[in-house]
Amino acid sequence: MVENNSESRDGKVTRRQFALGFIGAAGLAAFGSLLSFLKVLTPAKEGSGYVPTVKSGDKLVYAKGSRQGSLLKASDLQIGDAVLAYPKGKTKNVANIVQLIRLKESEYKPPTRVNETDEGFVAYSAVCTHLGCIVGWKRNNKDPEASIIECPCHNSMYDPALGAKVIGGPAPAPLPQIGVKVSKDGTLVFTSGFSGPIGPKV
Amino acid sequence: MISKWLDERLELQKFKDKFLTKTFPTHPSFLFGEIALFSFITLVITGIFLGFLYEPSIGKVSLFGAMVPAAYASVVRIDLLPMGIIIRRIHHWSAMIMIASIIAHLARVYFTSAYRKPREINWLIGLGLLGITLGAAFTGYLLPYSQFSVTATSIAYYITESVPWIGDWLARLIFAGEFPAHATVPRFFFLHVMLIPVLLLSLIGLHLLILVKQKHTEPGANRNRKEAQAGRRLIGIPVWPEQNYISVSLFLFLMFVVVLMATYIPLNPIELYGPPSPEATVMRPDWYFLPIYGFLKLIPGDLSFTIAGGKISPEAIGGVFFPGFLVMLLAAIPFLDRPKEPQNYIENPLHRPFMTSLGIAGATLLFMTTLSGYIDVFHIAPSAMAIYVIVAIAAAWVISYLLLRIYSRSGKKGEHVKN
Ligand code: HEM
Ligand code: HEM
Ligand code: FES
Q1: Distance from CA of A124 to the nearest CA of B (A)
Q2: What is the pTM of this model?
């Protein structure tokens, strides 16, 4: 080779430049084809997350604790109390979990759907709309009526008497409500589906 | 005898002459990098032990009569083995020490300006090491599959999903579907015990290779001594044997501390947290993720907007842009703070008012956002806390800058500063 550098004298492409360009293009193509493997590594969602299966007529059962799975009775809750509950037989799907709360019936104001409360019972999805933790109950012992729903993860606060409106913290939306009523035998029954989509709104 | 046998075949003497006689400058703060390295070695050794016994599956198995995920059951069984719980705690404590020492090492390099030309490459590799190590801690945290780890990981899942434009795809790539998918634990296990350790090992190797090639920076005091002797050799102690005595004793002392802590201080007691269940638990991540966690608490939930079809949500701001911005700023530093000549001496932080006060402001940012993770304990409203955070950072920056200015003005009479 006379010319060591890859520049040609008259602006023509040298063999060397051609070869390098060719190798470069082949390399790019090979790399591009590898990208298609990324598809294999990103499985589609199973559609499992937060699709509630609760139906009107399902009975409420305890979600945790020693009475987990047994039927909830209206007499189990005093004013200012709350428990986590599932529809009976559908306890495997976390989209179904609700925070069942008892306040005085006259406390509930819109945007609470007052026709979906009964004898002071109201139920909201217990999945925080921030990042999906299960919300907790912050009982105010001096004034049980002023108790609130609080998420333990980043302290989002929801007002149970105002349709679980966000009253503090980073949650972007209220918790969806679901209708409940007390049946003749004193157990609690769902009377509707959720008022909106469950879980984080990212 | 053996050494002779080996030497005849591998020419060890040549290697020793070439590498082990290198000089290592002495300064206690130069040991943080080594502590990170030794913690990593401890993690690999204890990790191999755990890897023999851990079962990466969330299929239900029976444990003392209850049906729980196999991963959880296998870790409970590890805890029941003689020494099992100690090994697990050594692993977890070493992870924390590794991260703490990396941060201290980064701070040392930053405050002494050792990142400057020609060491920019090692600074960038270092940032990569920091990120990958945090990735190791994050993937490891899910593995025991307790109530705690699952809650923590599902928060991270939604943060990933909130990344604008590519969030959905990225979340499925990292979590192998929608968390908690069956494939998540096997994927995290592979990342944690295979891909990440291999990446760490090769990057640490590269980091140290470059270090040997470029030689370590020296304390500024050496400059004066060398000028007196008109010599250019590094002043310090030879790697073999002196530096080795220090390193080996450091390693043994570190082991002593870690084993002591693992024996007496419980950490991540998964038996207490139980298997995943719908439970409202107070959820705080390990301390190294607290700044992000605290930041998330401060951002109002309605702060979201859309740019070019990508939704910028509060989670994206707190969980993605905030740490991303910090890392980008760190990455840019050696390219903004450029000396005229390549620099091989460290500087006294007290004589760099601007950079040092910037570093102090950065540290205050991390400290204050960490505190924000505890606003529920202190009963402070997020909006009030946000103001405290901003005020504290500004105050730390301005005050430390002014003090350092006054100090360096008053002390700058001498030609070269002692360190
Ligand atoms: C070759 C290297 C490693 C191997 C083989 C390994 C292996 C394992 C295994 C099998 C577990 C599950 C058992 C358990 O949870 O106790 C685990 C947990 C964990 N790993 Fe690693 N690991 C390695 C490196 C690392 C590194 C570099 C870090 C972080 C800096 C790390 C941090 C963690 C953490 C935080 C846990 C959770 C520990 C706990 O349950 O308390 N690991 N590791
Ligand atoms: C796994 C993590 C890391 C390990 C094991 C490690 C190890 C080391 C060791 C042993 C040294 C020499 C001794 C010393 O100065 O401490 C060193 C030097 C250095 N490291 Fe790291 N390092 C890590 C992460 C980082 C990070 C996060 C940065 C910065 C972003 C960084 C930047 C540097 C630089 C610039 C030097 C040269 C310092 C000088 O010559 O003064 N390293 N590293
Ligand atoms: S997940 Fe409920 S406040 Fe963040």
Answers
A1: 15
A2: 0.86
Q: Do A42 and B296 touch (CB under 8 A)?
A: no
If you average pLDDT over residues B405-413, what whole number do you get?
76
CB contact A167 to B (< 8 Å): no
Is residue B405 classed as helix, strand or coil in its secondary structure?
helix
The tokens describing B48, both together, are: 């191999």
ipTM of the complex: 0.73
The C-alpha atoms of residue B107 and residue B158 are separated, in whole angstroms, by: 31
B203-234 residue pLDDT tens: 999 999 999 888 888 887 777 766 666 555 67
Q: Tell me the C-alpha distance between B34 and A163, whole Å.
A: 56
Ligand 2 atom with minimal separation from the B203 CA: 1
- Check: CB of residue B155 under 8 Å from CB of residue A133: yes
Question: What's the CA gap between B320 and B132, in Å, rounded?
Answer: 16
Minimum-distance ligand 3 atom for the alpha carbon of A132: 1
Chain centroid to CA B188? 19
Closest chain B residue to the Cα of A129, Cα to Cα: B301
Residues in chain A within 8 Å Cβ distance of B310:
none
Domains of chain A, by residue range, sit at: 1-41, 60-194
DSSP codes joined into one string, B120-188: HHHHHHHHHHHHHHHHHHHHHHHTT--HHHHHHHHHHHHHHHTSTTTHHHHHHHHHTSSSS-TTHHHHH
Mean pLDDT in residue range A7-28: 84
Give me ligand 1 centre to Cα B90, in Å: 10
Closest in A43, A63, A97 to B183, CB measured: A43
**What is the distance in A from the centroid of ligand 1 to the CA of B192?**
7
Give the ligand at the shortest distance from the Cα of B43. 1
In chain A, alpha helices (H) = 15-35, 37-41
How confident is the model over B162-177, as a mean pLDDT?
90
Assess if CATH 2.102.10.10 describes domain A60-194. Answer: yes
pLDDT at B43: 97
Kindly report the CATH class assigned to B24-274+304-347: mainly alpha
Question: Which residues in chain B touch residue A168, judged by CB atoms under 8 angstroms apart?
Answer: 381-382
If we measure between CA atoms, which residue out of A63, A61, A79 comes closest to residue A71? A61
Is A164 buried (19+), middle (13-18) or exposed (0-12) by CB count in 10 A?
buried
Give, for ligand 3, the residue of A135, A154, A158, A166 to mutate: max count of ligand atoms closer than 8 Å to Cβ: A154
B165 touches chain A (CB under 8 A): no
